Amino acid sequence: MVVSGPDNRATLVMVLHHHQPVGNFPEVFRETYDRCYRPTLELLEDFPAIHVSIHLTGPLLMWMSENAPEYVERLVRLSKRRQIEVIGGGFYEPILAMLPVRDARSQVERMNAWMKDRLGVTTPGFWLAERVWQTDLPERLSGMGLGYAPVDDHHFLLAGIPSEDLHGFFRAGWLDSHLDLFPISRDLRYLIPFQLPEALLDYMDRNGRGGHVLTYADDAEKFGVWPETYHWVWEEGYLRSLFEQMTRQSHWLRVASMGEIVAERKPSRRVLLPNASYEEMMEWALPAKMGVRLKSVRRDLEQRGILSSVQPFLRGGIFENFLVKYPDVARMYGRMLQVSDMVKSGESPEALEALMRAQGNDVYWHGLFGGIYLSNLRHEAFSNLLKAEDALIRKGKIALPFVMEGDFDQDGLEELLVLRESYTVWMSPGKGGSLTEIDDRKHFFHLTNTMTRQFETYHDRGNSQEEHASSGVIPSIHDLPTGGGDPADIRYDPRPRRPFVDGIYPPDITGDELDQAFRCEADFSGLSFQTVDRSRDNVLLNAEVRIEEKMFNVSKEFHFSPESFSVRYQVSEEMSGTTSRWVEEKMWATEIPLTMLAGESHGRKLVLRNRPSEPLSWLEASDREEVRGFEGYDDWSKTRFFIDSSLPVRLVLRPIHSVSLSEKGVEKVYQGTIFFLLLPLSLLIREGWQITFSFER
């Protein structure tokens, strides 16, 4: 009888992660497929000894089913011959740790159902989006059929496990549940495909002998889509050469899937890992100024030759901090949880599907890629949340008019969500009596989908080319210079921009000063209004404020009708029968940030009411007097809005451009336009003022 022992060859576990987010442009799907996904799978078919785990996210799987069915057929073929293991996860690539358990389960079940239907198989292996780990995940994900996944060696280093022990896989448990985790080697992530194949073989020879299992897991887009990789990987033949050389060395080196290793071996040991992600992500999650300091510390330690020895103690932030770092992430996440709470009964599959589409991780963070700065991805997320609400309305689960009260973004302030036939508004009395959100519900368009401009680590001029010097044949995307951007293009918002935030300014205030809130003599963005009266169609807010030793009473009355809403301002100067000289010299300004996405595209119009001969541009600064209203129209989405003023106002427009990082480098990106409506404070006090926001005429 022959007894076979464990395979004592060095083993490289390969996990290739393929992802395109919900809402990405069709041409991006096609280009990435042609330059990366298709040739990689075709090449694998030529090398049957190379076994890998492959993960594809839901948006990509659906696109391939419709546009590249031959790819799915090849997946099935290679899976049947046990060369590849297709692993699952959340269908729309959500951060599972940040979802209610019911939603995480729905995402996983959606993926398992697709795999079973199209591939004929499901596996316990899964991809953890952005490798965001929380200590209690084994218990949160229990009962979902998930068994093992790759996470970064950084997680283990933070738990105090030395790098030389990071081979095989580890069992992470919590309460009575567990998951098996493969530590992804950072060294391998920076070797493949950026160094010669011989460098990988040398690394495996030095670290994998004696039956050690080392794990490489990373984005498949590195094979042809990341900058400078297509020529190297395909035209120069890097990947074919790598597979050829690994095949020739099969007497001491094998390439395996995670599933094969789990079937053959026991866990190396038990671990408890802290909340973590990969090293770069934890740096990006830090507040930007702290990120600059961390980079400085790392440079200093590297120059002193001790960076590698202290690296485990340089923790960085946690993924959840993006909810604090970016106000726009916080409000989107708050809206997602609102809708999740509405959908939780499970009685509308259509609403659940739209909710899951809005949970894709890409718009809830920012780092090397555009993330939250990509307005098309934000639009897709908000559009799906509106579609989920609409499905519940049509199902009879929400009756209009609908009003929900709560602290939706967990900032300690009560807010109101109002759904009417044509629109949705999110009202924040404690934030200057402003609106956090305005949506055109009929066209599923988030009109206030703008982005707060804020300092980013890569704006710091100290991020020099030297910091990103590459030691590879081609640079990793992490090694490319970020450059900081042109200082002339960089502007920061003093606070998040919200509709119907008000302030008082001198009469000679300029548009650029308004844009930066310079010379603002009274900023009401943080003024806490009290709700003094509320009915189905009306909300009356009131606040008292001291300015220049004088007390003012400010009231805002919101009136909601099916196709429009209005805001009625009343301001009075207490203990005074007549307006003071100070009041006579000031201007009241109300801001309304809006967007129709790409401001320069054909079919997006912006015109003054009753003055069509004076067209406006979303992309150009403008300053007009005696304006009674304006309207915007988008021929692509068919959304249209009208803003009318009961008094003539000075209308100032300033486009909002961010300077943000993507895989293409630092870019200037249009994020919307902010409209300032100004009128004399004395006129407002004497006559009151009403702004009406309409969606139908």
From TrEMBL:
<dbReference type="GO" id="GO:0005975">
    <property type="term" value="P:carbohydrate metabolic process"/>
</dbReference>
<dbReference type="InterPro" id="IPR011330">
    <property type="entry name" value="Glyco_hydro/deAcase_b/a-brl"/>
</dbReference>
<dbReference type="GO" id="GO:0030246">
    <property type="term" value="F:carbohydrate binding"/>
</dbReference>
<feature type="domain" description="Alpha-amylase/4-alpha-glucanotransferase C-terminal">
    <location>
        <begin position="407"/>
        <end position="692"/>
    </location>
</feature>
<dbReference type="Pfam" id="PF09094">
    <property type="entry name" value="AmyA-A_glucT_m"/>
</dbReference>
<dbReference type="Pfam" id="PF09095">
    <property type="entry name" value="AmyA-gluTrfs_C"/>
</dbReference>
<dbReference type="Pfam" id="PF03065">
    <property type="entry name" value="Glyco_hydro_57"/>
</dbReference>
<dbReference type="InterPro" id="IPR028995">
    <property type="entry name" value="Glyco_hydro_57/38_cen_sf"/>
</dbReference>
<dbReference type="InterPro" id="IPR014718">
    <property type="entry name" value="GH-type_carb-bd"/>
</dbReference>
<dbReference type="InterPro" id="IPR052046">
    <property type="entry name" value="GH57_Enzymes"/>
</dbReference>
<dbReference type="InterPro" id="IPR015178">
    <property type="entry name" value="A-amylase/a-glucTrfase_central"/>
</dbReference>
<keyword id="KW-0808">Transferase</keyword>
<protein>
    <submittedName>
        <fullName>4-alpha-glucanotransferase</fullName>
    </submittedName>
</protein>
<feature type="domain" description="Glycoside hydrolase family 57 N-terminal">
    <location>
        <begin position="15"/>
        <end position="269"/>
    </location>
</feature>
<keyword id="KW-0119">Carbohydrate metabolism</keyword>
<dbReference type="InterPro" id="IPR011013">
    <property type="entry name" value="Gal_mutarotase_sf_dom"/>
</dbReference>
<comment type="similarity">
    <text>Belongs to the glycosyl hydrolase 57 family.</text>
</comment>
<feature type="domain" description="Alpha-amylase/4-alpha-glucanotransferase central">
    <location>
        <begin position="317"/>
        <end position="390"/>
    </location>
</feature>
<feature type="region of interest" description="Disordered">
    <location>
        <begin position="462"/>
        <end position="485"/>
    </location>
</feature>
<dbReference type="InterPro" id="IPR004300">
    <property type="entry name" value="Glyco_hydro_57_N"/>
</dbReference>
<dbReference type="GO" id="GO:0016740">
    <property type="term" value="F:transferase activity"/>
</dbReference>
<dbReference type="InterPro" id="IPR015179">
    <property type="entry name" value="A-amylase/a-glucTrfase_C"/>
</dbReference>
